[in-house]
């Protein structure tokens, strides 16, 4: 009987051990599977981060991120090339203190007035097209940038800034401005609605209008509204306006322009359409006062 009892106890212990062993194997299997899944997820996350870094470093514009303290959280290769700072020098430091601390005129730039700073304070996108960033060397360069708030589960967690060096563009604009304003003939631009977009100095002198008085206003209504006999000049009949609509060059050798004081003078002009890509965006008009060349 004692032997039978001992065998029963032994059998029960064996069953219990086998059950616990099975349970432990199930638990270990679950843990191993979870660990494997996490390792795989981390590996995939690492691949994704590497891919994102590759994409960022392939961008032609400088890109960096900042947290709610204005400190750089990431930066792409183009940004380091333009700024002269390495990633290690930028990440974790204040972007404003390093590259945006001073205005182009040498005055201090308070961070509270900085559009980049504003993006992660007011949650709005801010765009600037005439600002400066400062390099590690102490030099500055003209920049155009967009500062966009970065959202995490609906909460602002910082901002992403995309910027480009526009120094060369600005130099070309200044050179073009000098060339246009040195011309003896009047030159002005129109959008597709016939509104003035720019005007050179000669045109301003001949017409008696300051550029700021004509910008955004209808050239035809202010300068080309009437024929020599005083009858109304329909805009639909105007060769200048036609170039903005049909995309063709229009020339006229015997027309009139009206000045700000109400007088008129004979003109010869060419109206040439402006086509960007395949889109008609306006016209450029070159004219001269025929009384000067009579």
Helix/strand/pairing class, anyone? alpha+beta
Helix content: 40-55%
Order of helices and strands: HEEHHHHEEEHEEHHHHEEE
Low-pLDDT ranges: none
Put the structure in a nutshell.
The chain is an alpha+beta fold and 294 residues long.
Structural commentary:
By secondary structure, this protein is of the alpha+beta class. It is 41% helix and 29% strand. It contains 10 helices and 10 strands. The protein has helices at 2-58, 77-83, 87-90, 95-99, 115-122, 167-182, 201-207, 211-214, 219-223, 239-246, and strands spanning 62-66, 72-75, 126-134, 140-152, 155-165, 186-191, 196-199, 250-258, 264-276, 279-289. Strands 2-1-5-4-3 form a 5-stranded antiparallel sheet, sandwiched between helices. A hairpin with a 4-residue loop joins strand 6 (186-191) and strand 7 (196-199). The longest helix is centred in the first third of the chain and has 57 residues, at 2-58. It is elongated. The chain starts with a helix and ends in a 5-residue tail after the last strand.
């Amino acid at each position: 009987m004692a032997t039978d009892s001992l065998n029963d106890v032994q059998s029960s212990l064996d069953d219990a051990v086998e059950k616990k062993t099975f349970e432990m194997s199930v638990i270990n299997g679950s843990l191993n599977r979870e660990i494997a899944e996490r390792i795989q997820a981390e590996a995939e996350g690492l691949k994704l981060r590497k891919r994102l870094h590759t994409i960022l470093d392939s961008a032609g514009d400088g890109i960096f991120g900042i947290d709610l303290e204005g400190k750089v959280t990431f930066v792409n290769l183009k940004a380091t090339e333009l700024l002269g700072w390495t990633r290690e020098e930028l990440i974790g430091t204040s972007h404003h203190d390093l590259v945006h601390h001073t205005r182009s005129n040498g005055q201090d730039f308070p961070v509270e007035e900085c559009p980049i700073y504003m993006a992660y304070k007011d949650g709005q996108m801010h765009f600037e097209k005439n600002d400066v960033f400062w390099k590690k060397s102490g030099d500055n360069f003209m920049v155009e940038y967009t500062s966009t708030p970065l959202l995490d589960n609906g909460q602002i967690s910082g901002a992403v800034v995309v910027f480009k060096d526009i120094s060369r563009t600005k130099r070309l604009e200044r050179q073009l401005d000098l060339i246009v304003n040195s011309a003896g003939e009047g030159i002005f631009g129109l959008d597709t609605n016939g509104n003035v977009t720019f005007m050179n100095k000669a045109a301003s002198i001949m017409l008696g209008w300051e550029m700021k008085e004509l910008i955004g206003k209808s050239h035809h209504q202010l300068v080309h509204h009437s024929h020599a006999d005083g009858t109304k000049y329909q805009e639909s009949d105007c060769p200048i306006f036609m170039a903005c609509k049909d995309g063709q060059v229009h020339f006229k050798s015997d027309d009139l322009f009206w000045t700000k004081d109400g007088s008129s003078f004979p003109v010869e002009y060419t109206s040439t359409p402006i086509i960007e890509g395949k889109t008609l965006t306006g016209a450029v008009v070159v004219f001269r006062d025929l009384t000067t060349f009579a």
